[in-house]
Write a structure and sequence with these properties.
Layout: E1 6-13, H1 20-28, E2 47-53, E3 56-62, H2 73-85, E4 92-98, H3 104-117, E5 125-130, H4 140-146, H5 149-157, E6 162-164, H6 176-185, E7 212-217, E8 231-237, H7 244-252, E9 264-270, E10 273-279, H8 289-298, E11 306-312, H9 318-330, E12 338-343, H10 353-359, H11 361-369, E13 374-376, H12 385-401, E14 406-411, E15 416-417
Parallel strand pairs: 1-3, 1-4, 4-5, 5-6, 8-10, 8-11, 11-12, 12-13
Antiparallel strand pairs: 2-3, 7-14, 9-10, 14-15
Helix pairs in contact: 10-11
Keywords: Cytoplasm, Endoplasmic reticulum, Golgi apparatus, GTP-binding, Mitochondrion, Nucleotide-binding, Repeat
Domain AIG1-type G: 5-206, 229-416
Family: Belongs to the TRAFAC class TrmE-Era-EngA-EngB-Septin-like GTPase superfamily. AIG1/Toc34/Toc159-like paraseptin GTPase family. IAN subfamily.
Length: 418
């Protein structure tokens, strides 16, 4: 029996027909993933297989093609999050691209992955060019030298970690060991979470220019999160009068009060977790976003884990969308820490919030930006414990899925942390 000296977990990424599954079989040296020529998508759900390769316990997770013709984009994204959530410990991405087939389809896939997984996903990605027989008389080095444009940029962003082989000709697989070493070096560390990461279709916003820049502060993920001692810091933002304070009172199980002009901090606990709720002053105008956000963050030191943006159901305008964009412009890499709460759900009468979203293009844009992280609240029944439980569940899911990372304020002007 071969001695196991190390472990490696690989998540395969690519479009339908790219050779993902066949490459997984090549890596593991076994035909464990279904792979054959077809006009229809073959891989429809995540499949994980483990084999010992050169003394390393290698786990390969095959995922549906991003352009799977039997699932919609949201279902494919959920499968990917399910795959990542099933892993125990560090993992790396292997992007499989057929030589000569880098098209707009692949470019769009990469853009969506960057939004879903964050810019840093490329730090943990190695590129495998499949179907090397497409090179014909050209060498792989020549192919790389001639590539310009988006593919060249992508290769650069991935640290020029590129390999090629032909899955039909195993003699071409001469660099498997080196590729596995690259994948080990770039593996992304993670903490196990008690919540399922498949709840969130994480969409990352673009950071805008601002005198104040908020950066995610990375926890040391080699240490487990101490939920008993660390309070989950939640900053609540929104226009004045939309129901920020009553939303917090719902979480606290208290009677509603008038909206505040200055931030106020509340402490509470739920399901063994501690929470710090920061009720910010409401924006009177959209152009007040930066000053209000900065003021609220002073009360969430060293930085918030979750941002809750409150919007009044039934009153969604382009101004609201601008406000949300401005908030994310102040908070770099903040979208995956953010959830939208629709207050005054009772204003919709019997209409489900999902139906209301479908009817409003601005609202659809807001929801798509934040994936599944939204909640509708009945402010006339704030003492209903069911509402508080549902909201706490979603807040804690964001905290867990970000491994306890929080947003930390830094000064661009001085180039150092405040």
């Amino acid at each position: 029996m071969e001695t196991v000296t190390d472990k490696l977990q690989i998540v395969l990424l690519g479009t339908t027909g790219s050779g993902k599954s066949a490459s997984g079989n090549t890596i593991l040296g076994d035909k464990v993933f279904k792979s054959h020529v077809s006009t229809q998508s073959v891989t429809l759900s995540c499949q994980s297989e483990t084999r010992i390769v050169n003394g390393t316990e290698v786990t390969v997770v095959d995922t549906p093609g991003w352009d799977c013709n039997k699932k919609n984009e949201k279902e494919v994204a959920l499968e990917l999050m399910k795959a990542i959530g099933s892993l125990n410990g560090p993992y790396a991405f292997l992007m499989v691209i057929p030589i000569g087939s880098f098209t707009l389809k692949e470019i769009e896939m990469i853009k969506k992955l960057r939004r879903q997984l964050g810019e840093e996903f490329m730090n943990h990605t190695t590129i495998l060019f499949s179907k090397s027989d497409n090179l014909e008389e050209k060498s792989f080095d020549q192919f790389l030298e001639e590539e310009k444009g988006e593919l060249h940029k992508f290769i650069q962003h991935c640290g020029e970690r590129v390999y090629t082989w032909n899955n039909k000709d195993k003699s071409s697989v001469t660099n498997l060991y080196k590729m596995l070493q690259d994948l080990k070096k770039t593996s992304k560390k993670r903490c196990q979470s008690t919540e399922s990461s498949q709840q969130d279709l994480i969409t990352f916003g673009e950071a805008g220019s601002s005198d104040v820049d908020m950066k995610r502060h990375k926890r040391d993920t080699s240490e487990p999160m101490d939920q008993a001692n660390e309070a989950v810091r939640v900053v609540v933002l929104g226009l004045a009068g939309v129901g920020k304070t009553s939303t917090i009172k719902t979480l606290l199980g208290q009677s509603s009060q008038n909206e505040r002009n200055t931030p106020q901090v509340h402490q509470t606990s739920w399901s063994g977790m501690n929470f710090m709720l920061i009720d910010s002053s409401g924006f009177q105008k959209v152009n007040e976003v930066e000053s209000v956000v900065s003021q609220a963050l002073l009360h969430a030191s060293p930085g918030p884990h979750v941002i809750m943006i409150i919007i009044r159901a039934g009153r969604v305008t382009e101004e609201i969308l601008q406000m949300i964009n401005d908030i994310h412009a102040c908070l770099d890499d903040s979208v995956k820490h953010t959830m939208i709460v629709f207050s005054r759900k009772d204003d919709l009468a019997d209409k489900p919030i999902s139906e209301f979203i479908k009817e409003c293009s601005v609202l659809k844009n807001i929801v798509e930006l934040h994936g599944t992280r939204f909640h509708a609240l009945n402010n006339k029944d704030i003492k209903d414990p069911t509402q508080a439980n549902e909201l706490f569940q979603k807040i804690s899911a964001i905290y867990h899925d970000n491994n306890g990372d929080f947003i930390k304020e830094t000064s661009r002007e001085h180039g150092r942390e405040k």
